[in-house]
Every structure is written in C-alpha cells, then in structure tokens.
Design goal:
It contains 4 helices and no strands. It has 85 residues and is mostly helical. Helix 1 packs across helix 4 and helix 3 runs antiparallel to helix 4. It starts with a helix and ends in a 16-residue tail after the last helix.
Length: 85
C-alpha cells in the first residue's frame, strides 16, 4: 500500500469510529474536517492509483474505499451508479 493510501485508510477508520459515536455523542462531532482531509489526500494520490479506489473516493463511498484499502473489495456491493469492480 502506498503511503498516501495508508493515511487515507487511517482517516477512513477515524471517520468510521467517529460516526459510530454520533448517536450518543454530546456535542456531536464535526465530520467536515475529516471529509476535507480525505478529499485533500485523494487529490494527492498518484495518477496510477487503482481506478476502483479513485471511484470510491470521488463518489464519497467511504466504506467501500475503506474495504478496498483493507483488501476486502470483494465485500463491496454494486452501487446505484452501476459500477462493478
């Protein structure tokens, strides 16, 4: 895994854990900085990045991107856009 991809995975895992606390968190966490960081890291990916990962990140499919980076892309279901890995 490329370094930027590792940092994206860490940000996606942080987003996932933060979202899981939303129901009981007081005050509610601000997710915008996490999304902005993921977007910034996505722009820093090299041009030869796997097209499936880029698709997930550009479509804001954070769970699919996380599964992809964890080597679990086979668990991703086809989305509404019709994209099939």
């Amino acid at each position: 895994m490329e370094k930027t991809e590792s940092v994206i995975l860490a940000a996606l895992l942080e987003l996932d854990s933060t979202i899981k606390t939303m129901a009981t968190a007081k005050p509610k966490p601000n997710l915008l900085p996490l999304f902005e960081r993921i977007d910034s890291l996505t722009r820093a990916l090299p041009k030869d990045t796997d097209p499936n990962l880029l698709h997930y990140l550009h479509k804001k499919s954070c769970e699919k991107a996380r599964l992809f980076l964890q080597g679990r892309d086979a668990e991703n279901a086809q989305g509404n856009c019709g994209h099939v890995p």
